[in-house]
Specification:
The protein is built from 17 helices and 6 strands. The chain has helices at 13-31, 33-54, 64-71, 75-95, 106-139, 154-174, 180-192, 195-204, 218-240, 245-270, 305-313, 317-323, 354-365, 367-375, 381-400, 406-412, 420-432; strands at 214-216, 277-279, 286-289, 295-298, 331-333, 341-343.
């Protein structure tokens, strides 16, 4: 007959169940504020992230999708804080276990902590839901559509909160010290500012936020979510573990599997130049043909940008077509370029000069070449990247034509004019990557 190694002698299982129920009701009554604190903390951090970015990037409010993406970048901070809060709650429970909780067998105490982890997660999840509501209300005046892509990071947030809450309670149970919560929060933040922060901030980005027209790759996002599931499962095993050989083996197996999985996922993630994100289907975007050739396309989230972007890019078309008549069929796209596309910066209501757009277009023409030589380990790669930058800079002067900022060029020592033959040479070199 298998018994709980933490069972109290002379106490029947029915009595244990009664005591466990009483302990749960008491914990629910006295500790219910913890989930509330978790919800308020998550909502406050999300709101602060949005308000802080609005101060220099007000265009975020043009779209609910951009606003939600911006708010959820705060997960880099809120996840380790939730872990610290969970550890603090576990320490409070375990250090005060002289009452009902202390009279329970260890297995029953562990189950109570797991239920508390679920309750804390519910509070934090409510904070995420309220943050999404705030983002919607803040952007409702613009009438932008709400789609599934608006909430693409919500599964990441919910799984992350569950994993970190379970980790916090497990650490608080096994290390009943007030040093545990702050150390766990700090360590969680330090470890999380690696792949997690790159994954999140690559999505939000600088203006315009990439969250407006990007979504996670299925494989990359699946790896991220599975990593969080692995963390949560390992923490639950630690939380439920009893001091028996069988549980020790289970803990070792799950912990080893989790660590190996995280290492493999991290290596796969580091090898991805786009940090796991890709543009939405360009075929679904709104497009407008410019006089003389090319089309300007904008995400469906910001239809008002179509006229603004067209006015900014129209002066560049004659120069580009003189450079290469085949570009007449090209489409202007923000974000990553595909064959037959030109790069530009999405205005999101801002006035961007044609000169600035010309620089974006010139550097976009050499995008694949930049990626090739940036990733290269060749001894000459640094020199080639420098040459690439110089060529793109000179080519941008040709593309801008009369819209170039000649005062800036004069002060910076840049070329005041570029001949067509030189421009064609640079264009061919950038596109064909002949360095």
């Amino acid at each position: 007959m298998t018994t709980d190694p933490g069972a109290v002698p002379g106490v029947s299982p029915d009595d244990v169940q009664v005591v466990e129920q009483r302990a749960w009701r008491r914990l629910l009554h006295h500790r219910l504020f913890m989930p509330g604190v978790a919800g308020v903390l998550v909502l406050a951090l999300c709101s602060f992230s949005l308000i802080d970015d609005i101060s220099y990037m007000p265009e975020v409010l043009d779209s609910a999708r951009a606003a939600v993406g911006d708010m959820l970048t705060s997960l880099v901070v809120s996840l380790p804080l939730i872990a610290g809060l969970a550890a603090a709650d576990a320490v409070l429970i375990m250090r005060g276990r002289s009452g009902l909780v202390g009279s329970l067998p260890s297995g029953a105490r562990n189950r109570l902590l797991l239920r508390k982890a679920g309750l804390l997660w519910c509070g934090a999840a409510a904070g995420i839901a309220m943050a999404c509501g705030v983002a919607y209300l803040a952007t409702a005046k613009n009438g932008t559509p709400i789609t599934a892509m608006t909430f693409v990071l919500v599964p990441y947030a919910l799984l992350g909160l569950a994993a970190y809450a379970c980790i916090g309670y497990a650490v608080g149970y096994w290390w009943q010290s007030w040093f545990a919560p702050p150390l766990l929060a700090v360590c969680g933040y330090v470890l999380g500012i690696g792949d997690d922060s790159i994954f999140l901030f690559a999505y939000n980005g600088m203006p315009p936020p990439w969250s407006l027209f990007q979504h996670p790759k299925a494989v990359s996002y699946g790896v991220v979510l599975l990593s969080l599931v692995g963390l949560a499962a390992t923490a639950i095993v630690w939380l439920l573990a009893l001091r028996t050989n069988a549980w020790k083996v289970a803990v070792c197996i799950t912990s080893t599997a989790c660590v190996c999985g995280l290492i493999v996922a991290g290596l796969a993630f580091d090898s991805s130049p786009d940090y796991g994100w890709t543009d939405d289907k360009h075929e679904e975007w709104l497009c407008h043909a410019l006089p003389g050739g090319t089309q300007v396309c904008v995400p469906t989230q910001v239809p008002g940008d179509l006229a603004l972007a067209s006015a900014q890019l129209a002066p560049l078309v004659p120069q580009l077509l003189e450079l290469d008549p085949a570009l007449a069929d090209a489409k202007w796209m923000p974000g990553s370029m595909a064959p037959g596309e030109l790069s530009y910066e999405l205005p999101m209501g801002r006035v961007i000069s044609s000169w600035s757009q010309a620089q974006v277009a010139a550097f976009g023409l050499g995008q694949s070449c930049f990626e090739k030589w940036t990733a290269s380990k060749d001894d000459t790669s640094e020199f080639v990247v420098e040459q690439l930058n110089r060529d793109a800079w000179v080519l941008s002067v040709w593309i801008a034509g009369s819209t170039a900022d000649f005062e800036f060029l004069r002060e910076s020592g840049g070329p005041m004019s570029v001949s067509l033959s030189v421009a064609k040479t640079l264009y061919t070199r950038l596109v064909e990557c002949t360095y």
